[in-house]
Specification:
alpha+beta, two-stranded antiparallel sheet
Length: about 190
């Protein structure tokens, strides 16, 4: 009887310890300028992280580019291929989790969206400096902000290489801030820490 009690206690204690030691997902993004490793904040932004991981696991980002690069602001990707074609989102828009208390500081990754609060799908950006103007301030159209869901844990030097690429107006799309020498996402996959 005491052996069974001991085994149940051990299972409960071990199970509890495993819950405490749960790790955030890590995504490795290989680019033609180096590797960027991202830790995703699953507890703080569960809807956003689940959405991003679906795109990663589908291989959606592979071969896309950072199409909007502003050296004193951010680098944005997840929406266009190397030929300038927009890649259509494969999942519906998600709830904006910008009210999770995490700031758009240097090295964080957040969801891009339109002027509609809950419109983020596949496009994301990495802040290259602290951007307080993007933070949640209120549940209004002007105050909602952009949902941070992770941070760069390795490869800020890669982000900075991309950040300082020469940009211009892309002749194919008419978009401004498009890198002249492309910043290609070769692959994005979930890895161990």
């Amino acid at each position: 009887m005491s052996r069974i009690f001991l085994m149940i206690t051990l299972i409960l204690v071990t199970g509890g310890m495993m819950l405490l030691e749960a790790k955030n997902p890590i995504v490795e993004m290989k680019t033609n300028h180096g590797v960027i490793k991202l830790e995703l904040f699953q507890e703080s932004a569960p809807v956003t992280v689940e959405n991003f991981l679906k795109y990663v696991n589908d291989g959606f980002f592979d071969g896309l580019v950072f199409h909007r690069v502003i050296s004193n602001f951010m680098i944005q990707g997840g929406g266009f291929d190397q030929e300038g074609n927009q890649k259509k989102a494969t999942y519906p828009a998600i709830k904006n989790e910008a009210d999770n208390g995490i700031k758009n500081d240097r090295g964080t990754i957040a969801m891009a969206r339109t002027s509609i609060v809950n419109s983020a799908t596949c496009q994301f950006f990495i802040n290259v400096k602290d951007n307080p103007s993007l933070n949640f301030t209120s549940k209004t159209l002007a105050g909602y902000g952009y949902a941070v869901f992770g941070k760069v844990i390795e490869g800020m030097e890669t982000v900075d290489k991309i950040r300082y690429l020469k940009t211009g107006i892309d002749k194919r799309t008419g978009m401004r801030d498009w890198p002249v020498d492309e910043a290609i996402i070769i692959s994005a996959k979930v890895v161990e820490k």
